Every structure is written in C-alpha cells, then in structure tokens.
C-alpha cells in the first residue's frame, strides 16, 4: 500500500490505481470508437440514401414512361393536358448551354487571375485579393440569381435587343462569375505548388516572366488546373437558383441562347414549388431528372479526381 | 571576335518584354473583373434595397403589397433552422472527424468512408433536397417542418464540417497527445481534454463558415416544399416555417418592379446575417487559434 504524504492527499500511485480500477472507464473506452464509427457511417448512409432514393423513384418513373423515350426524346412537355412528353434532351441541352457559357466566362478569367496571383502579384496584393475572391465564393446563389435577373439581363438587352427576359446568356455569364473564384483559387494552388527552382532555372536561361508562366509553370500545373475546371463545371451543372430565376421554364431542344430555356435543376425547382401531387408521373419525373443530374456531376467529379491523381507531376 | 550581337539581343528581348508587359496587364484586368463584379453587385443591391430596410420591414410578415411586405417570419424561420442545423451537423461532423483522425485504422472501410465524404461534397444541393423530400418529409413523415429542413441542411454541409474538423484535429501536434498519454490519460480522456480544446477554434471557424452556406441555400428548401407566405411564427420544431432565401426567391420572381426592391432589402438582411457570422468566425480564429 502506498503511503499517504504529509498533506493527507492520496499519492499519485493511489490515484492511478483508483482510476485504473474504475470499470466504467474501461467500458467507455471500448464503447467510444464504436459510437464514433456509427456517427461516421451517417455520411455513408447519406450517399446510400441518395442513390437508393433516386434509383427507386426513377424505376417507378420508368414503369410509366419508356426508358428510350426518356433518354432520346426531344420533347419535354410534362404539364400538357393531353399528351405528356418526357424526353430529357431539351433539359440536358438547356443545362449544357448554361454550362458552356459559364465555361467561356470562367475558364479564361479564372486561369488569368490564377496566373496573375501566383506569378505576378506581390505578396501584399495577393493578401488583399484572395479574401475578396473568397467573399465572391461565399455569396449565396440566390443573390447571384437576383443579380442576373435584375442587372445582367437588362444590361445585355441594351446590346442584344432580341434578348428575352429569360434567356441562357445572362444566367450562363453569372454562373461563370460564380465558379470563377473556384477555378482561380484551385488553379493558383496548383501553380504555387510548382517549385521555385524550376522557375529560377527558366529565368536564368533568359525567359521573361510570361514565358516562365506559360511554358514552364502552366504545363507543370496543368493537371491541377484541368481538375479545377472540371470540378467548377460540375458545380455549374448542379447550380439551381441562378438558372431558376433568370433562365426561364421553357425546355427547348435548340442552341439559341437568347431565348428562354430550362435546365435540369430548374425543372426540379419548378415542379417542387408548384403542386405536383404525390404519385403522379410529374412527381416521379423530378427523381429521374435528379438522377440524371447526379450521374452527370458524379462523372465529372470522378474525372477531376482521376486527372489530378493520374497526371500529377511529382517534384 | 564578337559572339553575341548586342543590338539584336536588345531587339529580340524588347518584343518579348513588351508582350510580357501587355499580358501582365491583361491578367491583372482579368483579376480586376472579379473584384469589379463584386463591387457592382453590392452597389446595386444596397441602392435598391436600403430604402425598404425600415423597422417595419423586420416586423411585418410576407404580403401581397410591396410596401407591407416584411421578413419577420423568414428571419425567425432562418434562426430556428440554424438551431437545428448547428448542433446536428456539429455532432455528426466532429464525431466523424474524431473517428477518422484518432481511431480509424487504414483499411478498406475507412478508405471508403473518406472517399465517400469527398464524393458527397460534389453532389448538387437540389439532389440533397430530393433526399430530404423522400426520407425526412415522407418516410419519417416530418412534413415540411423545421426539423426535416434542418436534417437535410445538416447532411448538405456535413462534408464541409468534417473536412474542417479533420484539419483542426490534425493540426494538434503529436507531442501534446503523447504528453497526455505519458501522464496516464486514456485515449478518450486525451481526446476530450487535450485534443478537442485546442482544436475547437479551428472546428468552430469551419463550422460557422459551413453554417453560413446553409443559411443561403435555397434549392433544398424549395424541393422539400417549404412554403413562402406564412403569417405566423414557428412554435416548435415540427412547425411549418419559411426562411430568408425562400422569401427572397419569392419576391425576386414576382413581376411587379417594386418587389425587386423588397427582394434587395431581403438580400441585405441575409447578407448582414452572413457578415455577422463570418465576423464571429474571423474573431474566433484570431483570438483563440493556438499556433504550435
């Protein structure tokens, strides 16, 4: 038995022995990892829930609408009284229009900003600009949607008189502005991770900064840049509020960007904010559209992952 | 003997230097484009909305008349929503992060959990809405209540919180943990009394940023079927409610021009909400962040 010290307090050995003998503590130590694993499995259950939900409801949808009609049909008239049409291509085309316009805006501006920030800007300037870009990335999409509808569209109408109130151009541009910070910031990360020794080597050979940026840094960081673009475009495909507010609700199978369109996301919103009765074909159609959307984004995220893993240059 | 013709070098270099300068300017202008957009956006919304930002705007419910429309129900609804999202997403997110950083061994299951989290963060928010509609609104029959919306939002921001918490936990140095073990502490004691206290500023900063994303999200709420015009305040977690972005969406959609200004005022309220939350995050980061 350990002796008590002069102050009458129990000795350290006693305390340790006491604490080790507590059965409760041992049970807790055993139980905690298990509880935490259960909590961690929520994220897995979420994925399973998403996939399961989408597949089950989509299968029900396909008992009402033939798969081939859905995949290759060029007419999307779910609200028609007599002959409903469920061909998803118009919605896909609407989504693509917005995404392509967004890419045309975001890719050059994003990569140019990334080059400027990583190769030209002073440390001080970078410290000012990067947080502002983060603010841009943190603005809720509903605000962007409002901006597209009330500012960008009227502005564009001054140059393009034929532009309808709802069109593909304005939300496309604004979605591009929304994903721009993502491309700029991820590409800048990729470019900053290119080691300075390579830059200095090129500079010592007499290259200008531009040549270093375009011929040395850009190729070395290409995998990261391409991955950032793919990731950002996947975000553009899934973007909902901007296209719901400024894109309109007329699914069309053409390449006109001045006229009203409808994207996959906007269709889901349109049906949800109306009263599509539970169990109707229209109700199930939002799941089939959601599933298509999910597959698109999953594919692109996977692509981004593969690009950044496989083609990464190691230094 | 002269090997290098100085003049031709200057001539050649000059054009390259000029191109360098031109492109540098272009790159700078491209960067400026983003900054300019943000300035225009804020300027527009403030000039449009500030006139409608009266005390009555905070006291009135939604209305068919622009002059009488207010954000009371939406603001209170958003706060209620946060009261569900904050605890649920924090418990799930921090729990997962502790598991992955402290307990998870390197095996297939844990690799799968990690990969799954990064995949989940790429799923569009509208798809989370579909999940919420099926599971929470219909299968668990919570209806379009605060609880159903809160759970959906929690799952939406879960990946962000997990990653932030993982980074914060990883930043606690190994030596501190080992000192704790050396004093006879068990693993769980070390986690709760040593690791978490020093990781909490990082976790909270990440969590607040994730929560401010949840405040601004609209699409999942629409899909769940959250109503817009509500003339009462929620009483409990199963009440119907509306939220700020829903209200803004409804106003922005209306054809009358005045409602655009009301929407701008609503956006200003939402932005103030966000600015307050972000300032808290920055404050916590600066005040409590320990550097090892």
TrEMBL record, chain A:
Q: How does it sit in the membrane?
A: Multi-pass membrane protein
Q: Where are the transmembrane segments?
A: 31-62, 98-120, 132-156, 168-191, 212-233, 282-304
Q: Name one GO cellular component term.
A: plasma membrane
The record's annotation in InterPro entries points to: MetI-like, MetI-like_sf, Phosphate_PstC
> Which UniProt keyword terms apply here?
Cell membrane, Membrane, Phosphate transport, Transmembrane, Transmembrane helix, Transport
Top-level taxon of the source organism: Bacteria
Main localisation? membrane
Among Pfam families, the record links this protein to: BPD_transp_1
Query: GO MF annotations for this entry?
Result: phosphate transmembrane transporter activity
Q: Which GO terms describe its biological process?
A: phosphate ion transport
* Compartments (UniProt record): Cell membrane; Membrane
Give the ABC transmembrane type-1 domain ranges.
92-304
Provide the family line.
Belongs to the binding-protein-dependent transport system permease family. CysTW subfamily.
State the PANTHER family in the record.
PHOSPHATE TRANSPORT SYSTEM PERMEASE, PHOSPHATE TRANSPORT SYSTEM PERMEASE PROTEIN
Task: Briefly state the protein's biological role.
Answer: Part of the binding-protein-dependent transport system for phosphate; probably responsible for the translocation of the substrate across the membrane.
NCBIfam families assigned to the protein according to its UniProt record, in alphabetical order = phosphate_pstC
- What protein does this entry describe? Phosphate transport system permease protein
Question: What organism is this sequence from?
Answer: Psychrobacillus vulpis
The gene behind this protein is pstC
Automatic annotation (TrEMBL), chain B:
Subcellular locations according to the entry:
Cell membrane
Keyword annotations for this protein, in alphabetical order, are:
Cell membrane, Membrane, Transmembrane, Transmembrane helix, Transport
List this protein's GO terms for biological process.
Answer: phosphate ion transmembrane transport
- A Pfam family found in this protein is BPD_transp_1
What are the transmembrane regions? 21-46, 79-100, 120-140, 146-169, 190-211, 262-284
Topology with regard to the membrane? Multi-pass membrane protein
Decide whether keyword Electron transport is in the record.
no
Q: Kindly report the protein's main subcellular placement as a broad class.
A: membrane
Task: Work out whether the entry's keyword set contains Metal-binding.
Answer: no
Span of domain ABC transmembrane type-1: 75-281
Mention any one GO cellular component term assigned to this protein in its UniProt record.
plasma membrane
Molecular function in Gene Ontology: phosphate transmembrane transporter activity
Cross-referenced InterPro entries? MetI-like, MetI-like_sf, Phosphate_PstA
- Give the family, as the similarity comment puts it: Belongs to the binding-protein-dependent transport system permease family. CysTW subfamily.
> What is the name attached to this protein's record?
Phosphate transport system permease protein PstA
Q: Which gene encodes it?
A: pstA
């Amino acid at each position: 038995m350990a002796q008590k010290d002069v102050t009458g307090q129990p000795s350290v050995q006693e305390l340790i022995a006491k604490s080790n003998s507590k059965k409760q503590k041992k049970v807790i130590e055993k139980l905690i990892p298990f509880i935490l694993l259960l909590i961690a499995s929520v994220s897995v259950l979420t994925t399973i829930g998403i996939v399961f939900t989408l597949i089950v409801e989509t299968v029900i949808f396909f008992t009402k609408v033939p798969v081939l009609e859905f995949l290759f049909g060029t007419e999307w008239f779910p609200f028609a009284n007599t002959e409903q049409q469920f061909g998803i291509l118009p919605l896909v085309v609407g989504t693509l229009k917005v995404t392509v316009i967004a890419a045309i805006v975001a890719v050059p501006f994003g990569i140019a900003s990334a080059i400027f920030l990583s190769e030209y800007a002073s440390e001080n300037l970078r410290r000012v600009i990067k947080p502002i870009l983060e603010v841009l990335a943190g603005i809720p999409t509903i605000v962007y949607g409002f901006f597209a509808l009330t500012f960008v569209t009227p502005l564009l109408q001054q140059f393009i008189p034929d532009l309808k109130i709802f069109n593909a151009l304005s939300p496309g541009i604004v979605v591009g502005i929304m994903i721009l910070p993502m491309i700029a910031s991820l590409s800048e990360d990729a470019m900053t991770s290119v080691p300075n020794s390579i830059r200095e080597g090129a500079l010592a050979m007499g290259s200008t900064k531009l040549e270093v940026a375009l011929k040395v840094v850009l190729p070395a960081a290409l995998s990261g840049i391409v991955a950032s673009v793919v990731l950002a475009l996947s975000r553009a495909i899934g973007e909902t509020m901007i296209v719901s507010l400024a894109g309109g609700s007329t699914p069309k199978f053409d390449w006109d960007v001045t006229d009203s369109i409808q994207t996959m996301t906007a269709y889901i919103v349109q049906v949800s904010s109306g009263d599509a009765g539970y169990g109707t074909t229209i109700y199930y159609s939002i799941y089939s559209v959601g599933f298509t959307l999910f597959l698109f984004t999953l594919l692109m995220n996977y692509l981004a992952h593969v690009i950044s893993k496989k083609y990464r240059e190691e230094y | 003997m002269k090997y290098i013709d100085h003049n031709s070098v200057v001539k050649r270099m000059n054009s390259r230097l000029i191109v360098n300068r031109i492109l540098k300017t272009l790159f700078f202008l491209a960067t400026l484009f983003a900054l300019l957009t943000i300035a225009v956006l804020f300027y527009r919304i403030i000039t449009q909305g500030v006139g409608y930002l009266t005390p009555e705007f905070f006291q009135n419910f939604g209305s068919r008349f622009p002059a009488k429309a207010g954000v009371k129900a939406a603001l209170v609804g958003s706060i209620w929503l946060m009261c569900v999202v904050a605890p649920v997403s924090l418990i799930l997110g921090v729990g997962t992060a502790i598991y992955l950083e402290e307990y998870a061994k390197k095996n297939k299951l844990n690799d799968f959990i990690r990969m799954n989290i990064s995949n989940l963060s790429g799923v569009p928010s509208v798809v989370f809405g579909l999940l919420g509609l099926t599971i929470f609104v219909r299968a668990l029959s919570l209806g379009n209540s605060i609880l159903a919306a809160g759970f959906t939002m929690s799952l939406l921001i879960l990946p962000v919180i997990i990653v932030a918490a993982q980074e914060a936990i990883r930043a606690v140095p190994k030596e501190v943990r080992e000192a704790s073990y050396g004093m006879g502490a068990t693993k769980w004691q070390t986690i709760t009394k040593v690791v978490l206290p020093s990781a909490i500023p990082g976790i909270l900063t990440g969590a607040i940023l994730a929560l401010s994303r949840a405040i601004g999200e609209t699409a999942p709420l629409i899909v769940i079927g959250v109503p817009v015009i509500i003339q009462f305040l929620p009483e409990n977690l199963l009440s119907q409610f509306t939220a700020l972005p829903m209200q803004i969406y409804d106003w922005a959609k209306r054809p009358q021009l005045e409602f655009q200004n009301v929407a701008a005022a609503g956006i200003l309220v939402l932005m103030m909400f966000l600015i307050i939350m972000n300032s808290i995050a920055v404050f916590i980061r600066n005040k409590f962040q320990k550097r090892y």
